[in-house]
Each structure stands twice: as C-alpha cells, then as structure tokens.
Amino acid sequence: MDGYTLNDLLATKTTTKKKQKKRLWREIEEIQDRRQLLHELKELDPSFKGSIDAAFFK
After folding, report:
1. Using an 8 Å Cβ cutoff, are 51 and 35 in contact?
2. Are the C-beta atoms of 55 and 48 separated by less than 8 Å?
C-alpha cells in the first residue's frame, strides 16, 4: 500500500466525511440566507416578483 497504514486510511476517510458534511451545511445555510433575503425584498417591495439572481445579476 505504498507506506499507508490502515489507521492513515481510516483517518483520511473520516476527515473527508466531516468536510463533506461541513460543505453541505454551508450550502444549506446559503439557501436559507437567499430565502430570507427574498422574503425581505418582497416585504420592501410587494410588487417584486423575481428571483434573487435576476435582481442582482442583471
């Protein structure tokens, strides 16, 4: 196995899973932030009927 031990492989696997979970949580938080921003935009301008991307990235 070219110098890798079983413990090294298991440690790498667990850190990879933790990173994936953190990445997934960041994506979830980003979606929640976008929903909150869209809600606030609709409160400020009730006639707003677009998406966040359309409002900011024209």
Report:
1. no
2. yes
3-state DSSP call for residue 3? coil
Residue whose C-alpha is closest to residue 33's, from 25, 22, 44: 25
CA 43 vs CA 1, 4, 15: distances in Å: 60, 57, 42
Residues in the chain: 58
Rounded distance, CA 31 to CA 49, Å? 18
DSSP state of 45: -
- For 30-34, 38-42, 51-55, which range has the lowest pLDDT when averaged over its residues? 51-55
Tell me the whole-structure pTM to 2 decimals. 0.54
